[in-house]
Design goal:
Length: 311
């Protein structure tokens, strides 16, 4: 038996806890973004004290449940991740996901789960209250140059920037040989949500009236996460990404966060890891766990391997 209750209706206490504890990944705003971008449903797992939002994404004929997408975030104080996942694997879940997936961060301490996992390097500044731009002198020089060249930081307003942000994001992913996981509808929803939520920020680096780059961050509890970023190649030499990142880290510190998490990097991109570490970040191993929850899970694994071979 499980103490978790499952429902596609949001428990009243769930949203209250998200608001009280500044939890973006689980809030109504964030889940509306995922709905707009991916048409996914949200299954709530809740025992009255803690739980998780499970986003059900479609992959062909299969449904995959991502727990606390994208950071494996849980909701509620004193939540025992191992107990929640034990309950999840023993329950008959509405929506019939073929499997559950969740990220388990190495910051502050990696929680052990005994399931199939994929490892990736994760970088974070975990002593954020002691962070200073003076400690990353090379970045400080680039930021001064960016300001001299006329770059300025603005928050996104009522302008429909979603399409442009997606264009820059997709170009970055393509340049690294990857596949874009997010779409234009998602970025449009992120921009709109950032105008009303204090937990989601979209920063723009502008030169005159032109967009040189952008950066998106989200706050979940005492951690600010770097979610997305992109730079217009025409302005790359002016280092808009450095200007944006410095501002985001400093603001997270000034708002009282304990950690700035750059999130995981692909294992085959060591230069990206080094870039994050140059901001004062420490790199540890993050795991993404997959838990089969259906008798069709073996078939799904075969289909997933074939898809990866063909794309």
């Amino acid at each position: 038996m499980t103490s978790l209750q499952f429902s596609f209706e949001r428990p009243t206490e769930f949203q209250s806890v998200c608001e009280r504890d500044s939890l973006l990944f689980g809030s109504a705003d964030w889940l509306s973004i995922l709905q707009a971008g991916f048409n996914c449903r949200t299954l709530f797992a809740w025992d009255g004290r803690g739980g998780a939002a499970i986003s059900l994404f479609r992959a062909g004929p299969f449904s995959i449940g991502y727990v606390g997408f994208p950071a494996g975030a849980l909701v509620g104080s004193g939540v025992d991740r191992a107990s929640i996942f034990r309950d999840l694997t023993n329950a008959r879940l509405p929506g019939k996901p073929v499997c559950l997936r969740t990220v388990v961060s190495a910051f502050p301490v990696l929680e052990e789960l005994r399931y199939k996992a994929v490892a990736n390097p994760e970088t974070a500044i975990c002593n954020l209250q002691q962070w200073s731009l003076k400690g990353v002198s090379q970045k400080a020089r680039r930021i001064r140059k960016a300001l001299r060249e006329g770059l300025r930081i603005e928050r996104v307003g009522d302008e429909p920037f979603g399409a442009r942000l997606y264009e820059l994001y997709a170009a970055v992913i393509k340049s690294h040989g990857g596949s874009a996981r997010y779409n234009e509808d998602y970025f449009t929803a992120v921009v709109e949500c950032s105008t009303r939520s204090e937990l989601l920020d979209v920063r723009l680096a502008m030169r005159d009236s032109e967009l040189a780059g952008f950066l998106v961050t989200g706050r979940h509890g005492d951690t600010t996460y770097y979610l997305h970023g992109g730079t217009d190649p025409r302005f790359r030499a002016l280092s808009p990404s450095d200007l944006l990142m410095a501002d985001a880290i400093a603001e997270a510190r000034d708002r009282g966060c304990d950690c700035f998490n750059f999130m995981a990097s692909p294992p085959d991109q060591p230069t990206l890891v080094r870039y994050k570490e140059k901001w004062g970040g420490e790199t540890r191993t993050q795991y993404t766990f997959t838990i089969g929850t259906s008798s069709s899970y073996p078939l799904f694994r075969v289909a997933e391997r074939l898809y990866r071979l063909l794309t």
